[in-house]
Design brief:
Mean pLDDT: 87
Helix content: 25-40%
Length: 357
């Protein structure tokens, strides 16, 4: 290309000038422009920002934040979704009914397990699948249970709490995605939505908890019991997904989602895909491209035991760290939920799955 440009310039300057003075002046002016044009054409081409320019245009159904908020409010009205309670059972049946109404193929995983404080609990994972014949599948997950006590509360450490953000927000976003998928316009890939149970009944050393019993056989941690069970007992034999995305505490006002360490270790390309999609949509105030440390969450067991590269979208509060100052406290109620945050997360996920080929 450079050699062609040099030849073109040499040819240009060997041309004989016109005899007419007016034409000579006009030609001289053109001679000033033509080399600039040639050199500009031969210069290096600027590569477009692939994160900001999608390769194709896809009609993506708009995520309805009002609807997602309604689904969160509905869960909270049942009461804290603590295993072995009426509210827990009612909420599970509500999820199953909604998924089926939206045309999903639904599978329930019922299992019993002992918690860190030696409580035997009955748990239920709920899986909703769309486009079940598609070989390429994307997995979206969240936990739906509520911790049985507000042990980080400054005053009411044994009190139950709503868990509007911790549990209900992720489930609410997935319910709205389910509703949209049920309206008929499907992405080209298959989509599986999983609601994990038993995520939040773990041993919290920060509040002085220490178990006196052994972790049950087949489990690695007191936290995230549902995802550990699912990873060892997939809902479909030999199930796998191209990648997964976990939602945890994704509905609070002024939320920010930093790039969590475990996600970067196990699923860096998924992190890039999600955060770049959010950037393209204008959600950089929410999805911050800052790397932070890792945490124990369902995605760790989806990665290590389930062998599915999974990234965690999880609330991070500057100055506090992961989860925020209302984590496991009575402050986690509907008053902290933001429709704007729900919209940022939901629209990002919808674009991720609909732009997948």
């Amino acid at each position: 290309m450079i050699l062609w440009c040099l030849v073109a310039l040499k040819f240009l300057f060997t041309l004989q000038p016109f005899s007419n003075s007016f034409m000579r002046k006009k030609k001289n002016f053109l001679f000033l422009l033509i080399p600039i044009f040639i050199l500009n054409s031969c210069g290096p081409k600027k590569k477009p920002d692939e994160a900001m320019v999608p390769l194709r245009v896809v009609q993506v159904p708009a995520f309805n934040a009002d609807s997602a908020y309604y689904f969160i409010e509905k869960q909270v009205k049942f009461g804290p979704r603590v295993p072995n309670t009426k509210a827990h059972n009612q909420t599970a049946q509500y999820f199953i009914s909604e998924f089926k109404k939206n045309g999903a193929a639904v599978i329930e995983q019922d299992f019993d397990v002992v918690t860190w404080d030696n409580q035997k609990v009955q748990l239920k994972n709920i899986i909703a699948s769309y486009n079940p014949d598609a070989k390429k599948r994307i997995l979206l997950a969240a936990h739906w249970d509520t911790r049985p006590y507000a042990d980080k509360d400054t005053e009411k450490k044994n009190a139950p709490f709503d868990g509007a953000n911790d549990g209900a927000s992720g489930a609410g976003v997935l319910l709205e995605i389910s509703r949209l998928l049920g309206q008929g316009k499907m992405p080209t890939v298959g989509v599986d939505l999983i609601l994990f149970d038993g995520e939040d009944w773990g041993e919290d050393s920060s509040t002085g908890q220490k178990s006196s019993i052994q972790i049950p056989e087949g489990y690695k941690d007191w936290w995230c019991l549902g995802s550990q069970y699912w990873a060892k007992h997939k809902h479909v034999k030999n199930y796998s997904a191209y990648y997964g995305i976990l939602l945890d505490m994704v509905g609070a006002k002024h939320s920010q989602f930093f790039r969590e360490g475990g996600s970067l270790e196990y699923a860096p390309t998924v992190v890039e895909k999600v955060w770049n999609t959010a950037s393209r949509l204008g959600y950089t105030d929410y999805f911050v491209k800052t790397n932070v440390g890792g945490i124990t969450d369902d995605h760790i067991f989806m990665n290590e035991m389930g062998k599915i590269p999974t990234a965690d979208i999880v609330h991070y509060q500057t100055g506090v760290g992961f989860f925020g100052d209302y984590h496991h406290s009575t402050k986690d109620n509907l008053s902290i939920i933001s429709k704007e945050t729900l919209g940022a997360v939901g629209n990002t996920l919808m674009n991720v799955i609909y732009y997948e080929e």
